[in-house]
Amino acid sequence: MNERIITSDACVAEGAAALAQMEPRFAWALDQMGPLPLRLRGDGFPALLSAIVGQQISTSAAAAIWSWLETAKLTGPRKAKWASDDDLRACGLSTPKIRYVRALSDAKINYKALRDMPTEDVLKTLVAVPGIGPWTAEIYVMFSLGRADVFPPGDLALQEAARILFDLPERPKERAFREMSLAWAPWRSVAARILWAYYRVAKDREGIR
Q1: Crossing angle of helices 156-165/174-181, nearest 10°?
Q2: In angstroms, rounded to a whole number, what is the distance separating the alpha carbons of residues 181 and 188?
């Protein structure tokens, strides 16, 4: 596998500099912000479990549920697999998410092997698991595996940031946004970091919700 892996703040800075050269709007946005965050995290079962926990709920609610799961020692695949529905529900998981946790526990993913697989193969492996959609898989590949050229076009914050930064009439649809992001290769993961950071700037300035 010859894909670029982001391992440090220096990698992010390199990508940001390249994007600023190829796209003046990125250069302008970067001038409005400080250094971009690295945002790397661990990989494996806990990382995907955390992503499932956080789907469609607030950051604070996800943090609370994760804390309860950690206290109950239910963040590993074996413990999660053998926990009762009542145990998982007591930690704040909904019935659909309990089903997704069990599917993830049964998936027998070789997380170590994912580190050396091409990105497209990793994405196919992950989305085959119930409860893991494209966005969750792309976020895992970006931040748990550090791939430099991945972009999650279904992310609403990225869509809104692009609408404002590129002066679009509306938020780009997912398919069109994916096509748009191709111009930012081989640093699409850094382009996403720029847009997320710019979203926070624009949100404060324009009162976006």
Answers
A1: 60
A2: 7
So what CATH class is 9-39+149-206?
mainly alpha
Which pTM value belongs to this model?
Answer: 0.90
| Other Cβ atoms within 10 Å of 43 Cβ, number | 18
CATH of domain 45-143: 1.10.340.30
Q: Is 43 part of the annotated catalytic residue set?
A: no
In the chain, list all ranges with CATH 1.10.1670.40.
9-39+149-206
Q: Which part of the chain is CATH 1.10.340.30?
A: 45-143
- Give the pair of three-digit tokens for residue 67: 């804390």
Annotated catalytic residue: which of 106, 149, 155, 204?
155
pLDDT one-digit tens code per residue, 152-184 = 999 999 999 999 999 999 999 999 999 999 999
